[in-house]
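Quick one:
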Amino acid sequence: MEGLPYECAGAAVMLVQSFNRTAEGESWHDVRRFGEERGAQIEEGRVVPSPRPTDIPLYLGWVNSEPAGLERIRAAICEGLTPHSTRCVVPRRARSGVM
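Output:
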């Protein structure tokens, strides 16, 4: 575990965030297998403790998230404009709906 040399971590969390659960079926199975190897039953939308002994407690989880639509992307980009900015420029990839 990366935090151990610094003695700063009271717990560790491995959280997988999926933006397309259907397309990530293989990843979902891999994460579940990883949890099973550590004695944990990973469920969508929950963080669960790993019962396998470790130097610090380990928690595992998987969450599903909807990808942001074009308007949300535009709002996030344009929100940070300075008062001197005259227009909001959205990256080409965002204009095509792919991010």
